[in-house]
Amino acid sequence: MQHFEVIGGNRLKGEINISGAKNAALPIMAATILVEGETVLHNVPDLADVRQMQTLLARLGVKSRRDDEGAMHLTVEDEMNAHAEYELVSKMRASVCVMGPLLAKRKRAQVAMPGGCAIGDRPIGLHIQGLRALGADFELVNGDVLLRAKRLTGSDIFLGGPFGSSVTATANVMMAATLAVGRTVITSAACEPELVDLAEYLNACGACISGYGTPEIVIEGVLSLRGTEHRVIPDRIEAGTFLIAGAITNGDLELIGARIEHMRAVVDRLRCVGVIVERGEKGIAVSSSRRLEPVMITTQPYPGFPTDLQAQAMALLCLADGNSVITEKIYPDRFLHVGELNRMGAHLRKEGPTVIIEGIKRLVGAPVMASDLRASAGLILAGLIAKGTTLVHRAYHIDRGYERIEEKLARVGANIRRVDAP
Fold first, then answer.
1. pLDDT averaged over the chain?
2. Looking at the 3D structure of the chain, how many domains does it have?
3. Which of 8, 163, 244, 416 is buried most, with the most CB atoms less than 10 Å from its CB?
4. 165 and 190 together in one domain
């Protein structure tokens, strides 16, 4: 098992290329189940989760390969199998994105229940609710969700949940509705840029989707979809992570390809902290003063502050001059990194879904354990500014969502390396 060794104290300066968005690439890859002919996807990041999706799609009859320039080619070669087994689904929650495409194209979808995870329970009730509204029959079989429908029919569907809209449920229902008979209207739909990217891919394939990017999406069903060529949007979470890396190290970075319009809530909070964030010639430029102001952050569905940047923001606010407050409204249990940051000298106190952060002058390097993908990133950022050496164990977590993060950080001055555990 590998870990990251980070020696703090270096100021980051230079350019970082932002990879394609994992959370856009995965549902788009799943959507190729719906289409006839070849899809060519550009800017798909080389991540553990992407490779896992390729493995799952291969089991479902979708052949994929990367060409010499890195583009991914996907083609459906066999439509017999409609079972996403637990062995694969348990390794990556985004596997549930195959549910809608399988049901629409193959009239049957059997997908293992993904179970809980380190950031708390994430049920799939909204997925099932939306697909049943399109006419699917549902039953639970040996821990699998089994959905069947000879024909899907458009419907008015409300997808609001206890913590707001669901991106993956919206994606599943939207994908299924593209081949349904008639019109589907999804209200309380997710508005994330990754969902917009999926809709634009589907429309390029011949779907008829409007209203995406708003809480009401309208889908007019079509008879078939054809393969196309598409470029995946830049990853706003990776970009946000590197924005905070620049801020926490008093750095000066330009994030090539990052889109500031996808990150307005993040930019707003960073500017309130005292970080300088500007639209650059090639993306987003970030620099920081040495004094960081305390702020309040509440995670919310897009366009609010993303839960996937909560741990990274917490690392930054450990060094603010005063007390900050972070409230987690998406996954209230997503705080396993709090104990690890306290091991590095942070003064954090958890009270329900809220963490009170008492700013300090310095963090201290320590061995820490990553509990999930974004917590890993937060601990690496803390290590960049800590005195001494920080060892972030379980590097496999961060490989799920960041493309060679240690190489990107090292190129702009970070003292970080990947180490094989003895």
1. 95
2. 2
3. 244
4. yes
Q: Could you tell me if 183 and 57 lie in one domain?
A: yes
User: 329 and 343, same structural domain?
Assistant: yes
245 and 284 housed in the same domain: yes
Q: Do 408 and 17 touch, CB atoms closer than 8 A?
A: yes
202 lies in the same domain as 244: no
Domain boundary among 162, 197, 231: 231
Distance CA 368, CA 168 (A): 31
Catalytic annotation, pick one of 97, 117, 191, 205: 117
Q: What are 101-141's pLDDT values in tens digits?
A: 999 999 999 999 875 445 444 568 899 999 999 999 999 99
φ/ψ of 4, rounded to 5, equals -105, 135
| Cis, peptide link before residue 45, omega less than 30° from 0 | no
Q: Token digits for 47?
A: 């991540």
Q: How far apart are CA 229 and CA 97, in angstroms?
A: 20
Residue 256, domain extent: 2-19+234-420
CATH number where 387 lies: 3.65.10.10
Global pTM value: 0.96
In this structure, are 374 and 238 located in the same domain?
A: yes
Laid out side by side, the sheet with 229-231 consists of: 62-66, 72-76, 39-42, 229-231
* Tokens, residue 103: 């049901």
Point out the domain boundary residue: 231, 264, 289: 231
Average pLDDT over residues 390-403: 94
Q: In the annotation, is 191 catalytic?
A: no
What would the pLDDT profile of 9-63 be if each residue is shown by its tens digit? 999 999 999 999 999 999 999 999 999 999 999 999 999 999 999 999 999 999 9
Could you tell me if 31 and 162 lie in one domain? yes
Strand partners of residue 161: 164
| Rounded alpha-carbon distances, angstroms, from residue 356 to 262, 268, 328, 341, 347 | 27, 20, 12, 13, 8
DSSP output for 358-379: E--S--B--EEE--SHHHHHHH
- Give me the percent of the chain exceeding a pLDDT of 90: 88
Does the pLDDT value for residue 326 go beyond 70?
A: yes
